[in-house]
Design goal:
One of its GO terms (cellular component) is membrane. Keywords: Membrane, Transmembrane, Transmembrane helix. This is Sulfate transporter family. There is one protein chain. By secondary structure, the chain is α/β, with parallel strands linked by helices. The protein has 2 domains: 29-77; 78-154, STAS domain (Transcription Regulator spoIIAA, 2-Layer Sandwich), CATH 3.30.750.24. It has 7 helices and 4 strands; from the N terminus they run αααααββαβαβ. It has helices at residues 5-10, 13-27, 30-38, 42-54, 57-77, 103-111, 130-145; strands spanning 79-86, 89-98, 118-128, 149-154. The protein has a 4-stranded mixed beta sheet with strand order 1-2-3-4. Helix 4 (42-54) runs antiparallel to helix 5 (57-77) and helix 6 packs parallel to helix 7. It is rod-shaped.
Length: 158
């Protein structure tokens, strides 16, 4: 199968291992690690790297992939909704990822606000999917139909 199998058997295993270590070290780029740290992805990188070193390549990559899926699910289902009554107006702050998974939480919070009230909604979200948009839009339409005023502001970090 392998044309140079006999030649490869003559190379000491320690030399091949050293070659792999050197290639692996050249793949590590400090600038990329800093970028990963800024985007809160460094733990994922370290888990994958440690899995590859301590287990083996396949298991390390699978461990990294599983961790990435868990991180993504956590981020997509993490959302806080705060409501407070300020004078004659209500103030609602939504932070995190506004996805279908948190629509029930959003709906429960918005249901606390009396119909026809004046409401300021601050969306500090990094993701808004269609289901969440529909829930927010339908609630806003119902509030305004009953005489309320709803102002929705998107807040973006600079």
């Amino acid at each position: 199968m392998l044309l140079a199998a006999g030649l490869l058997r003559q190379i000491p295993t320690a030399v091949l291992a050293a070659l792999l270590v050197m290639i692996g070290l050249k793949l590590i780029k400090i600038k990329e690690i800093r970028a990963l740290q800024r985007h809160r992805e460094l733990p994922l990188y370290l888990i994958t790297a440690l899995g590859v070193v301590c287990l083996n390549l396949m298991d390390g990559v699978l461990l990294g992939l599983g961790t990435a899926v868990a991180f993504t699910l956590f981020r997509l289902t993490r959302c806080t909704v705060r409501t407070e009554h300020k004078g004659e107006r209500w103030h609602v702050v939504v932070e995190g990822s506004l996805t279908f998974a948190v629509v029930p939480k959003l709906s429960r919070a918005l249901a606390q606000i009396p119909a026809g009230s004046s409401v300021d909604v601050d969306l500090a979200v990094d993701f808004l999917d269609h289901a969440a948009f529909d829930a927010l839009h339908n609630w806003r339409t119902a509030q305004e139909r009953l005489g309320g005023k709803v102002d929705i502001d998107e807040i973006h970090e600079a």
